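Retro notes (design track)

What went well: tokenization of the new backbones is finally stable.
What didn't: we kept losing track of which sequence belonged to which structure.
Fix going forward: every design gets posted as structure first, then sequence, in one message. First example under the new rule, 367 residues:
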């Protein structure tokens, strides 16, 4: 590794720690290993596993989180050697997404991604810790379990089959929900209702802002909107034009491919919005990096050509110096606090100014 990649590794580890805290963990210690490529058996290499083992003991940790994707056998080997639960970056992100998914579709999408992740790792989970014989370290390819035959296998096969069934069922359900959503969206497009997508890094405060902007719990009975997904709400400009605001999936650096696949339709929907409101956590140690990561994902789904309104959130928790720096860096950005309600009117105005003006105005008369 060059110094640059070491810095990358440190940043990535800092971010991993922040993600772990988001998921509700308390982070005790960090460990960086320099290698040209991961060790096939243990990812970090035999010597480093011993260091890790001592670190786990001295810190009294109950979990090891690894910044990278572990193969099923690497995960198993590490658990066996450290005697604690080992989680990789993908599993951690999936966990956070599971906590954050609010809509029925979102929850189904996360479950699908989790099951696809779990399927090849099925044997490793739980079993490593209880099976102390230590014989499975050899020849453990993808799926593992070579040479481990016995009554357990039947149960494993049943579990795998059940998971496969659940996966195909989830796929069908997601497809059906997608069709319904597309039909509704097509109707709104025909009716000239502009769409605003709220994008941003996981935990930046997207849902909090959505609530602030639309007034949580305000359900308006209107044919066009009554059956909206909970993550899409309607709002009205000061001159009575209606638009929709949708919360999108949270973005994370190196988003696991299972997530991108499961959420593809939701992500692609962002590309059809009229405006992207990009929420950044101003109290985060590295907001610029978050912005870069989000723009990268937006680019992947073809949403990088849309007009973007940058919103720096959590100004109540950010320090003055950072805020000044960010103001210089992003002079066009709107600074808000979803918690305190600060800057929300400015944000509403800014959104309004950027909405496309329909040739024919649609007015919805509220009761
Ligand atoms: P999302 O993952 O982007 O949808 O983020 P959430 O809206 O779920 O918020 C993530 C966390 O940040 C929650 O714990 C919120 O309470 C917190 N949060 C959101 N907005 C603010 C804010 O303006 N100030 C502070 N201090 N915390 C906020």
């Amino acid at each position: 590794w060059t110094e640059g990649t070491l810095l990358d590794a440190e940043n990535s580890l800092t971010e991993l720690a922040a993600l772990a805290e988001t998921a509700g963990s308390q982070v005790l210690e960090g460990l960086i290993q320099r290698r040209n490529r991961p060790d096939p058996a243990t990812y970090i290499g035999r010597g480093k596993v011993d260091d890790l083992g001592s670190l786990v003991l001295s810190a009294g940790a109950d979990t090891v989180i690894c910044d990278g994707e572990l193969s099923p056998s690497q995960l198993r080997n590490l658990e066996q050697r450290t005697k604690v639960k080992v989680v990789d970056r993908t599993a951690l992100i999936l966990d956070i997404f599971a906590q954050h998914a609010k809509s029925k579709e979102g929850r189904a999408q996360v479950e699908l991604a989790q099951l696809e992740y779990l399927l090849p790792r099925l044997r490793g989970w739980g079993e490593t810790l209880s099976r102390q014989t230590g014989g499975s370290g050899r020849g453990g390819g993808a799926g593992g379990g070579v040479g481990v035959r016995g009554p357990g296998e039947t149960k494993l096969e049943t579990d795998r089959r059940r998971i496969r069934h659940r996966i195909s069922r989830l796929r069908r359900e997601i497809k059906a929900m997608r069709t319904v959503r597309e039909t509704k969206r097509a109707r709104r497009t025909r009716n000239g209702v502009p769409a605003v997508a709220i994008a941003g890094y996981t935990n930046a405060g997207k849902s909090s802002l959505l609530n602030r902007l639309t007034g949580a719990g305000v359900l308006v009975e209107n044919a066009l909107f009554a059956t909206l997904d909970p993550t899409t709400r309607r709002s009205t400009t000061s001159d009575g034009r209606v638009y929709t605001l949708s919360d999108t999936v949270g973005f994370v650096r190196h988003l696991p491919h299972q997530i991108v696949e499961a959420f593809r339709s939701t992500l692609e929907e962002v590309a059809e919005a009229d405006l992207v409101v990009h929420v950044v956590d101003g109290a985060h140690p590295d907001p610029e990096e978050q912005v870069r990561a989000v723009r990268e994902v937006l680019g992947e789904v073809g949403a990088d050509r849309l007009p973007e309104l940058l919103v720096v959130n959590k100004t109540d928790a950010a320090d003055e110096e950072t805020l000044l720096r960010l103001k210089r860096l992003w002079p066009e950005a709107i600074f808000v606090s979803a918690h305190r309600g600060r800057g929300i009117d400015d944000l509403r105005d800014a959104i309004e100014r950027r909405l496309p003006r329909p040739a024919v105005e649609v007015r919805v008369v509220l009761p």
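Added context from the reviewer: Residues 124-145, 217-224 have pLDDT under 50 and may be disordered.
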